[in-house]
Design brief:
8 helices, 41% helix, 5-stranded mixed sheet, alpha/beta, globular, Nucleotidyltransferase, domain 5, 4-stranded mixed sheet
């Protein structure tokens, strides 16, 4: 067994419906290792592989982690996690740690979309989320990319090339998929359809932001932060400029889980 490091080590694991993230944190709150992987068939497998890869970056073993908390879609199915924490709390905590002046967090994940409002101390002030339909999530974009026969990484740049964005009328993901197929059969340009797909998602996110009240100093987290088309359209329609974060926006949930583990440890929990 390796000698224990001279400082405490904390970990956060975030297993969603599309990706899993792991973060290794030292006692000062500095990120020592982080990883993003595609989810495996089972939650525990995803969690263990992500954690092993993050630990490999640090040269530490799992037995050297002082405390590990989990979050995300599969948070309550991770055996090596001491406690599971809501995604809302984790994304708020992680975003505030990376940019203390952030007041609103837009988290666009594969399973759901959340708008979280924070107070000056980073505490939860209000939130709204869409978790009843895939139409407001990253999964929606994946399904539409598949229908358009393009890679999900190409969907955002494709939408930005549109000259005449189309309007999709369907509210349901399945009906929207059928509508996209009809547009393709009708000879419509893929770029214009992709722009319409993103606009449909933006409308749903904007509705959540309106419910919460969009405060200035906004950031975007989750897999949606990697979609240039979605980011550009959100900034335009919400009339904001997303603040950059000091780490990959997609690991913010796992970072928040690790930070909360550190907080609880410091408080004697």
């Amino acid at each position: 067994m390796s000698a224990p490091p001279p400082y405490p080590i904390f970990a956060g694991i975030d297993v969603g419906s599309i990706t899993a993230e792991a973060v290794i944190l030292d006692g000062a709150g500095s990120i020592q290792g982080s990883v993003i992987i595609r989810v495996r068939p089972r939650v525990e497998q995803s969690a263990r592989e992500a954690m092993a890869m993050a630990l490999e970056q640090t040269g530490l073993g799992q037995e050297q982690i002082d405390l590990c908390f989990s979050t995300g879609y599969g948070r309550d199915s991770i055996a090596f996690s001491s406690k599971n924490i809501s995604e809302i709390s984790c994304h708020g905590r992680g975003a505030h740690h990376l940019a203390p002046d952030i007041r609103t967090v837009l988290d666009v994940g594969g399973q759901d979309c959340k708008v979280v409002r924070l107070d000056a101390d980073g505490n939860l002030d209000d939130f709204a989320m869409n978790d009843k339909c895939a139409a407001g999530t990253g999964r929606f974009l994946e399904m539409m990319a598949r229908t358009l026969s393009v890679d999900i990484s190409e969907l955002g740049p494709l939408a930005l090339r549109s000259k005449r964005p189309l309007v999709l009328s369907s509210q349901c993901t399945i009906f929207c998929e059928m509508e996209v197929m009809q547009l393709l059969y009708g000879g419509k340009k893929k770029a214009d359809i992709a722009a319409g797909v993103h606009a449909a998602l933006v409308r749903r996110i904007k509705a959540l932001a309106t419910r919460v009240g969009l405060h200035e100093r906004v950031c975007i987290t989750g897999g949606g932060s990697k979609n240039a088309g979605l980011v550009a359209m959100l900034e335009r329609d919400l009339d904001v400029r997303f603040q950059p974060l000091a780490a990959d926006p997609q690991i913010v949930g796992a970072l928040g889980a690790a930070l909360i583990a550190r907080d609880r440890s410091a408080a004697g929990g």
